[in-house]
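PROTEIN DESIGN WORKSHEET
SECTION A - STRUCTURE
LENGTH: 252
TOKENS:
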């Protein structure tokens, strides 16, 4: 069984079928991207898998565990993390504190501060925080209030917070949205680093096709809630259904 599998996953909002029988699988260590025009169902798929929305029907398995019916807290506890499309930062805390809080909150999956913890665990958390800040390139900003960061650095801090929870599978919904080209390039390098250094499986939603084709092992394409293509970047680039979906009059 793959690390993550969905079978015939369907989500309806009233009359809108945002996900229509979506069947996908993600192997451990892969970097997969999910593409599709605006409104294709990408965020809905992430929200359903991570437990923020319940599916209308269908199955979801993570590491052979059935996720349907679990709440986001339980799913996160299993090692499924996410970097949020909307801000998840404590503005008045420093960059370092934001990362440390996230790391403490999920240390060893306990989801609570354990005041009887041995001291070396605290050191572990602080070491991990330093590693994350170095990996993500926020070392020099570590003592600044998060609210004082420029936009691109805030987005990177969100990724750092997601990372601090030490996920085995990380969902990233448009992590580079609104970034400048140079910030985007840095974020992409970071995503590469994550996979290499942490062995994290990445599930990326990204609108920049150059990035998607560059970093992905495999690409899923959604169109009007349906999975219309699943393949390597080369396969997806040449797929007539994908071209049709993007050229078919929707703002891609
Ligand atoms: N909470 C909700 N209630 C009702 N309809 C919703 C809800 N969330 C999403 N939808 C609808 O479901 C469809 C899929 O939306 P979704 O946000 O998943 O698309 P997306 O692929 O993430 O788009 P984008 O690229 O703009 O982020 C859209 O028609 C949207 O209007
Ligand atoms: Mg979305």
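SECTION B - SEQUENCE
RESIDUE ASSIGNMENT:
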């Amino acid at each position: 069984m793959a690390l993550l599998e969905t079978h015939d996953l369907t989500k309806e909002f009233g009359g809108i079928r945002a996900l229509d029988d979506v069947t996908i699988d993600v192997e451990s260590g892969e970097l997969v991207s999910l593409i599709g025009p605006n409104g294709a169902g990408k965020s809905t798929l992430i929200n359903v898998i991570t437990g923020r929305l319940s599916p209308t029907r269908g199955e979801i398995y993570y590491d052979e565990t059935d996720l349907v019916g679990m709440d986001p807290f339980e799913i996160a506890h299993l090692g499924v993390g996410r970097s949020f499309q909307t801000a998840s930062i404590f503005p008045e805390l420093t960059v370092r504190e934001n990362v440390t809080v996230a790391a403490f909150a999920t240390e060893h999956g306990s989801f609570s501060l354990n005041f009887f913890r041995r001291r070396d665990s605290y050191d572990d958390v602080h070491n991990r925080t330093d590693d994350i800040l170095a990996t993500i390139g926020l070392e020099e900003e570590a003592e600044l209030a998060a609210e004082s960061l420029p936009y691109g650095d805030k987005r990177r801090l969100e990724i750092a917070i997601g990372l601090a929870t030490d996920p085995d599978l990380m969902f990233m919904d448009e992590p580079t949205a609104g970034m400048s080209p140079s910030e985007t390039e840095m974020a992409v390098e970071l995503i590469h680093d994550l996979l290499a250094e942490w062995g994290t499986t990445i599930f990326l939603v990204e609108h920049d096709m150059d990035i998607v084709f560059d970093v992905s092992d495999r690409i899923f394409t959604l169109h009007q809630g349906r999975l219309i293509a699943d393949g390597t970047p080369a396969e997806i680039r040449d797929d007539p259904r994908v071209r049709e979906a993007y050229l078919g009059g929707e703002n891609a």
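SECTION C - NOTES
The radius of gyration is 18 Å.
Residues 89-166 form one domain.
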